[in-house]
Amino acid sequence: MQITIEIPDTLAHQLQINSEDLERKMLELCVIEAYRTARISSGKARELLGFETQLELDTFFKERSVDLNYDLSDLQQDLETLETLHQEENLAQT
After folding, report:
1. Which of 11, 23, 31, 83 has its CA at 20 to 30 Å from residue 72's CA atom?
2. What CA–CA distance (Å, rounded) separates 58 from 42?
3. With bands split at pLDDT 50, 70 and 90, how would you rate the model's confidence at 11?
4. Number of C-alpha atoms within 13 angstroms, CB side, residue 15?
Protein backbone atom coordinates (compact mmCIF):
# COMPACT_ATOMS: atom_id res chain seq x y z
CA MET A 1 0.00 0.00 0.00
CA GLN A 2 1.26 3.43 -0.84
CA ILE A 3 0.02 6.45 1.09
CA THR A 4 0.71 10.08 0.32
CA ILE A 5 0.99 12.50 3.23
CA GLU A 6 1.32 16.22 2.87
CA ILE A 7 3.63 17.80 5.43
CA PRO A 8 4.02 21.56 5.66
CA ASP A 9 7.42 22.72 4.41
CA THR A 10 8.08 24.41 7.74
CA LEU A 11 7.67 21.13 9.59
CA ALA A 12 9.82 19.24 7.07
CA HIS A 13 12.48 21.90 7.45
CA GLN A 14 12.32 21.73 11.26
CA LEU A 15 12.61 17.95 11.18
CA GLN A 16 15.55 18.19 8.77
CA ILE A 17 14.52 14.93 7.12
CA ASN A 18 14.76 14.23 3.41
CA SER A 19 11.99 12.29 1.67
CA GLU A 20 13.79 8.91 1.83
CA ASP A 21 14.45 9.28 5.55
CA LEU A 22 10.88 10.43 6.10
CA GLU A 23 9.56 7.31 4.39
CA ARG A 24 11.65 5.15 6.72
CA LYS A 25 10.59 7.16 9.79
CA MET A 26 6.92 6.76 8.87
CA LEU A 27 7.40 3.00 8.47
CA GLU A 28 9.10 2.84 11.85
CA LEU A 29 6.28 4.78 13.50
CA CYS A 30 3.64 2.53 11.96
CA VAL A 31 5.47 -0.62 13.03
CA ILE A 32 6.00 0.71 16.57
CA GLU A 33 2.32 1.58 16.93
CA ALA A 34 1.19 -1.77 15.49
CA TYR A 35 3.51 -3.60 17.88
CA ARG A 36 2.50 -1.52 20.91
CA THR A 37 -1.17 -2.27 20.23
CA ALA A 38 -0.41 -5.98 19.66
CA ARG A 39 -1.55 -5.88 16.04
CA ILE A 40 1.73 -7.40 14.88
CA SER A 41 4.23 -9.75 16.49
CA SER A 42 7.87 -9.02 17.11
CA GLY A 43 8.69 -11.37 14.23
CA LYS A 44 6.53 -9.35 11.86
CA ALA A 45 8.03 -6.09 13.18
CA ARG A 46 11.52 -7.48 12.58
CA GLU A 47 10.57 -8.48 9.05
CA LEU A 48 8.99 -5.12 8.20
CA LEU A 49 11.97 -3.18 9.52
CA GLY A 50 14.49 -5.44 7.81
CA PHE A 51 16.31 -6.62 10.92
CA GLU A 52 18.03 -9.99 10.79
CA THR A 53 17.94 -10.77 14.51
CA GLN A 54 15.62 -10.32 17.46
CA LEU A 55 18.44 -8.51 19.26
CA GLU A 56 18.47 -5.81 16.56
CA LEU A 57 14.74 -5.32 17.02
CA ASP A 58 15.00 -5.28 20.81
CA THR A 59 17.73 -2.63 20.59
CA PHE A 60 15.62 -0.58 18.16
CA PHE A 61 12.63 -0.75 20.53
CA LYS A 62 14.75 0.06 23.58
CA GLU A 63 16.21 3.16 21.90
CA ARG A 64 12.64 4.34 21.30
CA SER A 65 11.31 3.39 24.77
CA VAL A 66 9.01 0.71 23.38
CA ASP A 67 8.09 -1.92 25.95
CA LEU A 68 8.48 -5.51 24.81
CA ASN A 69 5.29 -7.56 24.62
CA TYR A 70 6.54 -10.25 26.98
CA ASP A 71 4.01 -11.78 29.32
CA LEU A 72 3.83 -14.62 31.83
CA SER A 73 3.17 -17.24 29.15
CA ASP A 74 6.32 -16.11 27.29
CA LEU A 75 8.31 -16.46 30.50
CA GLN A 76 6.90 -19.93 31.15
CA GLN A 77 7.76 -21.01 27.61
CA ASP A 78 11.30 -19.66 27.98
CA LEU A 79 11.73 -21.47 31.29
CA GLU A 80 10.52 -24.73 29.72
CA THR A 81 12.98 -24.27 26.86
CA LEU A 82 15.78 -23.58 29.31
CA GLU A 83 14.93 -26.72 31.29
CA THR A 84 14.89 -28.81 28.10
CA LEU A 85 18.29 -27.44 27.09
CA HIS A 86 19.72 -28.23 30.53
CA GLN A 87 18.40 -31.79 30.34
CA GLU A 88 19.87 -32.25 26.86
CA GLU A 89 23.21 -30.89 28.05
CA ASN A 90 23.21 -33.27 31.02
CA LEU A 91 22.43 -36.22 28.74
CA ALA A 92 25.21 -35.23 26.35
CA GLN A 93 27.73 -35.12 29.20
CA THR A 94 26.94 -38.66 30.41
Report:
1. 31
2. 9
3. confident
4. 14
